[in-house]
Amino acid sequence: MKNSKFTIVLLASVMTTFFISCSDDDGEVVTVTETVEVDSSQPVGDLMVTLSGNLVAESGTPTQGLVEVGIDDEDENFVRFAENFTTELGTGTVGIFLSTSEVFTADPANGNPDLMLIGNVTGNGEMIIKLDAAPGAKYTHIILWCATANIPFGNVALN
User: Fold this and answer.
1) How far is CA 105 from the centre of its chain?
2) 130 forms bridges with which residues in the sheet?
3) Ranges of each domain in the chain
């Protein structure tokens, strides 16, 4: 009898503990973590334009549009081709270079310190390129260069 009373008390304790600890408590705090992806290739906040100019077409291409160089709210540097940007897209890769002049002067053997490749044209319309650092003061132009045809598609003097 002593054993059966002990068993009943033990069973009652276990059942009480189970129901109390596993009950649905409406006051329970639930933490939800949401992952938000930020596109670091886009300016954060406003782009403060420091230099800009309009493209001049070269080599019979339809190149035109506004180009801006600026800094966003987090001090990151960008080059922005405006919505009105157009160029020839059918000949291959068109490189975008910061340059010290409007003339593209390649030096494949040594590299040209007066040119800095910053990206490639991906299409007509707005295009934004994030720069690794602020462009040096020596860079006064941006040149669109088609390596396939070995001709300039356009340039812009940055003022």
Assistant:
1) 29
2) 78
3) 48-157
Cβ neighbours for 115, distance < 8 A, ≥ 6 positions apart = 97, 98, 99, 100, 104, 105, 106, 143
The C-alpha atoms of residue 101 and residue 117 are separated, in whole angstroms, by 14
Can you tell me the distance from the alpha carbon of 128 to that of 15, in angstroms, rounded to the nearest whole number?
65
Cα–Cα dist 9/4, whole Å: 9
Q: In this structure, which CATH number among 3.90.550.10, 3.40.50.2300, 3.90.1170.40, 2.60.40.200 belongs to the domain 48-157?
A: 2.60.40.200
Residue-wise pLDDT for 44-94, tens only, equals: 999 999 999 999 999 999 999 999 999 999 999 999 999 999 999 877 789
Single pTM value for the model: 0.73
pLDDT tens, residue by residue, 91-142? 778 999 999 999 998 777 777 889 999 999 999 999 999 999 888 999 999 9
Tokens 């129901």 found at: 19
Tokens at 13, concatenated: 């304790």
Q: 88: closest CA among 142, 115, 124?
A: 124
d(CA 41, CA 131): 9
The dihedral through the CA atoms of 143, 145, 150, 152 has a sign that is negative
